Amino acid sequence: MTTTAIIAEYNPFHNGHKFHLRSARKTTGSDYVFAVMSPSFVQRGESAVYDKWTRTRATLRCGADMVIELPVIYSTASAENFARGAIKIITESGIADNLAFGAETNDLSALSAAAELLVNPTESFNETLKSELSKGVSFPVARATAFSTETGKNPDILGTSNNILAVEYIKALKMFSSGIKPVITKRTGSEYNSDKINGTIASASAVRKVIYKGKTNLVAQTVPPECFDLYEKAVPIFMDQYSDAMAYLLRTMTADDLREISGISEGLENRILKTVGNSYKITDICAELKTKRYTHTRLMRILCHILLGITKEQEQIFSPIEFQPYIRVLGFRKSAEPLVSALCHKSNVPVVINVSRDERNLSDLQKSLLDLEKKATDIYYLGQPTPSGKKRALDYTMPVIIENI
């Protein structure tokens, strides 16, 4: 049995994702392909546009055999910890032969060279990085410049979103001494952050934008029909729908409280508190705080951590370098029952399929991680516009999704 893993947000699942799933299966000749997917909140520091169960069902209908949840402590982290958390889960699953990911390049050697340099940086690389940061540029830009200066390679290897994640995946595979083989699919169609729709394959950013504007004709154009009916029934959620909750938090938290939040440093807590009198919506707060040093995405992650109460201590406790997470199955195809069985037998960590039943098999620390997930799910549903939609404890009451495929 040959199995390929994919790390994804599917926010939301669209035609490009379906292409990648098919490509990964064909390229690797795998019997099964499974996804490790972000849950209620994602790496851009935003709420997922649709809930994790809707996105799980869409993913299964469109080609994946199983969907595993990436805990929110990793799904809302920097690219480095996002990758480490996902790779740790895939490695500990014991069932993955390949890791398939998209990138703006198909040059695996260049990505591997970048990963090696970041794992074992030279003195000159560190000096250039420090010099660039002193100019006030963001860390990603400074790192790309230092990489280009050191290797003579195009800085875009570390300058585009998917390439950055690809390098982090390769770094993490090296860190965990994994024998899993990386497989690249070069991105096709719109760029990662493009908000333009010119055909049937668009970026997730563009799809979210037309969902926000209610342009159902463009949504239908860019997502598989198997997904469209699911999206029509679901209620989309956007980060500004938590502005009331954020306003409460920022009006009751002190600078000392904020300093404990993951990602906050260099006196940013004081700047955040100053926004309380000027901005109300979360996106407006982010815009007010944005500088060359603090990018939009970095600030949104920090604001997301405030909303979820994710602290520096939790980030350290659950660091994937040492912590052994659980593996939670959100859904699978009926035809993939052998894959689920293999996971349960080969996994080096506890497998959670039914939360009420399986959480008793977790260690105290693993239970704490699951508690954080339950909290994030409950907060996510506060973004629903109607009282009846603001459900709680769904991690207990929602059964694992089984698609009869």
Care to describe what's here?
The chain is an alpha/beta fold and 405 residues long. It contains 21 helices and eight strands. It has helices spanning 15-28, 52-61, 72-75, 79-93, 108-119, 123-133, 139-151, 161-175, 204-213, 216-222, 225-233, 243-252, 255-259, 268-274, 282-289, 296-308, 312-317, 337-346, 355-358, 364-381, 394-397, and strands spanning 3-8, 32-37, 66-69, 98-103, 181-186, 327-333, 351-352, 401-403. Strands 1, 2, 3, 4, 5, 6, 7 and 8 form an eight-stranded mixed beta sheet that branches. Helix 2 (52-61) links the parallel strand 2 and strand 3 (66-69). Helix 6 (123-133) runs antiparallel to helix 7. The longest helix is centred in the C-terminal third of the chain and has 18 residues, at 364-381.
Task: Name some characteristics of this structure.
alpha/beta, 405 residues, globular, 8 strands
In short:
With 405 residues, this protein is an alpha/beta fold.
Classify the secondary structure makeup into a structural class. Answer: alpha/beta
End-to-end separation in angstroms reads 19 Å
Radius of gyration: 20 Å
SSE sequence, one letter per element: EHEHEHHEHHHHEHHHHHHHHHEHEHHHE
Number of helices: 21
Shape: globular
Number of strands: 8
Give the helix level as a range of percent: 40-55%
How much strand content do the residues show?
Answer: 5-15%
The description of the largest β-sheet is: 8 strands, mixed
Mean pLDDT: 94
Low-confidence stretches: none
